[in-house]
Amino acid sequence: MTISERGPFEDRREPLIAQMQVDVPGLMPETKTTAGIQTNSTLERSLPTIAGQLLSREGSTEKTPFEKVIDDVRSGKKNAVWAVAGVGAITITVAVAYELGVRHGKDIRELYEKLLPHRPKAEPKK
């Protein structure tokens, strides 16, 4: 059996990690002090912008790359987390053969569920 018949990630023993940054103008992280939360994140206000970037199909019926990652996470092929990476960006980390824990970010499925109500509407074909 050749690699193309098995698939490139089958029988992979070493970790494979990829990371991407999604720029979100106006996004601010939550800041905490020992006394508690100092400022709240602007994530909820930024969800339509993030959904537009990650879930926009632009007339295509195929799933977006983000939706394909979600499918792979649900099937157990990959592990993925996300975090507000600072002012104006979120970071998405995807791993194969490596367990990403809470220190790396929040479960990617949580972000996907938050984005679904803000999914861009498909434009009717003319």
Topology:
Elements: H1 3-6, E1 16-23, E2 31-33, E3 36-39, H2 43-55, H3 65-75, E4 79-86, E5 89-96, E6 106-107, H4 108-115
Antiparallel strand pairs: 1-5, 2-3, 4-5, 4-6
Walkthrough of the structure:
- The structure is a single chain.
- The protein has helices spanning 3-6, 43-55, 65-75, 108-115, and strands at residues 16-23, 31-33, 36-39, 79-86, 89-96, 106-107.
- The protein has 4 helices and 6 strands; from the N terminus they run αβββααβββα.
- Helices cover 29% and strands 26% of the residues.
- The protein is an alpha+beta fold and 126 residues long.
- Strands 1-5-4-6 form a 4-stranded antiparallel β-sheet. Strands 2-3 form a two-stranded antiparallel ribbon.
Q: How helical, in percent, are the residues?
A: 25-40%
What is the residue-averaged pLDDT? Answer: 82
Radius of gyration over all CA atoms, rounded: 17 Å
**Count of individual helical segments:** 4
| Portion in strands | 25-35%
Give a short account of the largest sheet: 4 strands, antiparallel
Q: How many structural domains in the coordinates?
A: 1
**Poorly predicted runs of 5 or more residues:** 1-6
Q: Which strand order does the major sheet show?
A: 1-5-4-6
Tally of DSSP β-strands: 6
Q: Could you give the order of the helices and strands?
A: HEEEHHEEEH
Q: In one word, what is the shape?
A: flat
In angstroms, what separates the terminal alpha carbons? 47 Å
User: From the helix content, strand content and strand pairing, which structural class follows?
Assistant: alpha+beta
